[in-house]
């Protein structure tokens, strides 16, 4: 009986994925499937007692200390960078901030939310003019460029694993006549340097790492004695888990295979508290998931508004036969963000902020 049910389940999933990849599933159905998946994740993640819940988190933290900093060492660039920067210029806000934004009020536009978020980072990181700043995982430079424009006497170094992103930020600096920014290409898990900084910031990089003990030890060496480290990561409020292909969805879980392929972690809101060997926490905040959910909805709207141009990009990047499939993948990724972080009124998955000092 169980074998028959398993075969039936696989057949249904195969049919749904086939329909999805042909763009034959309406959004209302996709959203419903995502919510079913999220409910299943919660059933798996929550334990029957607080004792078991805490034990699971402690054991998970211990297991990470036995792993490398990253499971993706040696890969030159993440798959996401296969797409041209023009794709992200269309779907993201004008700051090209490919991370959660904070919406001060319901009427905020994405650009206003991006600016409010960048200002919040600077406030919580205690950035002041004249400091040296290291932006670890700087992306397309949203925070690096914001600091450079807002604090003229700061010297900002951005670290990215993407030569495409470096080229973009360098070009933006030339256009804006910004002279206090340097972008370095390197893999955080293997990158070494002698320089130290007043402030270090890392926005949504830790999700792609594993061994936070070794990672924070490395980062602490780049902190001046009175330096501070600000970290943002998305998370679940209670439990943590690896990003990995679900066992019973192994044939069909394209989301993990294609867009969470860096072998990272969904952290819990307090997971980093177990990695204070070389840094110690100064402050800790969480932001309700509805803000990230709205960010995903805004990205989706921009994508849908520009579908003809985006489909051409998909054809040139993935080939004509795969263009529809990859367009659907990206739309579903944005739908997933909207549903994931909006689940239970934003009180399940959310965004965490930490401020650390050097020990």
From TrEMBL:
Keywords of this entry: Methyltransferase, S-adenosyl-L-methionine, Transferase
Highest classification ranks of the organism: Eukaryota, Viridiplantae, Streptophyta, Embryophyta, Tracheophyta
Similarity comment: family membership: Belongs to the CFA/CMAS family.
Name used for this protein in its record: Pavine N-methyltransferase
SUPFAM superfamilies documented for this protein: S-adenosyl-L-methionine-dependent methyltransferases
Species for this entry: Ziziphus jujuba
Record keyword Transferase present: yes
Xref: InterPro entries: SAM-dependent_MTases_sf (IPR029063)
Superkingdom per UniProt: Eukaryota
